[in-house]
């Protein structure tokens, strides 16, 4: 499954995880104390802010379990993501990668998440990209229009503001979704993502379009500024991906999920040289090995 809704549509499913105090997006990460045990049976997902005790750690998944009916998908997942990290979550299909992202984001039911290409089909590109600003800021409309145009230009799209998502190619949709994830009102700090979550941002793209998206993801993270050069506080991002190019270009560290648990963690460099048989089989795409299909 490549999206939060079980759709096989290639999609840049993104989630801005904002500091709880901003309280703007419906998909904000909730503070740790809002994750009650009734919501996450036997699980614990913690969000730390800078200055808290665990200063380095932004997100911690601690013994996270998740079942769908009789299907026990996550069976005690443990990992930490530090401030400033670019982390990939990889592993065989159906192993629960998207489920982990949903849990990090506090999304409990599929009907609460963005669907298909992560764009609202009935809204124009401008309304999609400026969505959070229209909804949650006091920015004047002409300012939002200007910022939307600038942000779209920065992801390589011009004069598409009035188009509907159905009039865009798959790659263009992903860029529009990326523009929406990196636009925000710097003056009012209304939308200030602490971490961005990407679910298969390059699925279904050709190699060159993949490179464009991977470099855009990376540039937002590295420069500490948004697509139009304004300072941002995007400290970290988490990417669920199957694509080798995305692993190589867009992330620094990997968390490998298999059969509901983290079976390996390491840098992207260590991934290629790992002697772990699960990692070796996955990296080489071998049919023989501990991962059974
Ligand atoms: N809401 C749900 N209800 C029932 N089963 C679900 C639900 N969401 C996910 N699943 C099941 O949980 C398992 C893990 O799904 P998930 O999408 O997290 O896997 P994944 O590792 O991201 O897969 P892929 O790499 O194929 O995208 C799958 O078997 C899926 O069918």
TrEMBL record:
Source superkingdom: Eukaryota
Pfam families: ABC_tran
Gene3D superfamilies in UniProt: P-loop containing nucleotide triphosphate hydrolases (3.40.50.300)
GO MF annotations, alphabetized: ATP binding; ATP hydrolysis activity
InterPro entries: AAA+_ATPase, ABC_transporter-like_ATP-bd, ABC_transporter-like_CS, P-loop_NTPase
Domain spans labelled ABC transporter: 59-284
UniProt keywords, alphabetically: ATP-binding, Nucleotide-binding, Transport
Name this protein carries in UniProt: ABC transporter domain-containing protein
Species assigned in the record: Ambrosia artemisiifolia
């Amino acid at each position: 499954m490549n999206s939060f809704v079980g759709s096989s549509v290639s999609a840049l499913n993104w989630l801005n995880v904002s500091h709880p105090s901003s309280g703007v997006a419906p998909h904000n990460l909730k503070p740790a104390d809002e994750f009650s045990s009734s919501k996450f049976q036997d699980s614990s997902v913690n969000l730390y802010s800078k200055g808290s005790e665990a200063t380095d750690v932004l997100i911690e998944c601690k013994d996270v379990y998740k079942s769908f009916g009789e299907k026990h998908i996550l069976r005690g997942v443990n990992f930490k993501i530090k401030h400033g990290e670019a982390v990939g979550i990889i592993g065989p299909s159906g192993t629960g990668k998207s489920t982990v992202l949903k849990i990090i984001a506090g999304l409990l039911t599929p009907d609460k998440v963005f669907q298909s290409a992560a764009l609202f089909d009935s809204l124009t590109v401008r309304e999609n990209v400026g969505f959070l600003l229209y909804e949650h800021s006091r920015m004047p409309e002409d300012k939002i229009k200007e910022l939307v145009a600038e942000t779209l230009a920065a992801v390589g799209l011009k004069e598409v503001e009035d188009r509907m998502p159905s009039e865009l190619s798959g790659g263009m949709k992903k860029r529009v979704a990326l523009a929406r994830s990196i636009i925000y009102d710097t003056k009012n700090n209304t939308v200030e993502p602490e971490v961005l979550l990407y679910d298969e941002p390059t699925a279904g793209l050709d190699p060159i379009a993949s490179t464009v998206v991977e470099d855009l993801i990376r540039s937002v993270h590295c420069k500490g500024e948004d697509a139009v050069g304004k300072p941002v506080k995007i400290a970290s991002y988490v990417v669920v991906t199957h694509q080798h190019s995305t692993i190589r270009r867009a992330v620094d560290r990997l968390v490998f999920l298999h059969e509901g648990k983290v079976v390996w963690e390491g840098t992207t460099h260590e991934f290629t040289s790992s002697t772990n048989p699960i990692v070796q089989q996955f990296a080489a795409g071998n049919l023989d090995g501990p991962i059974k299909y």
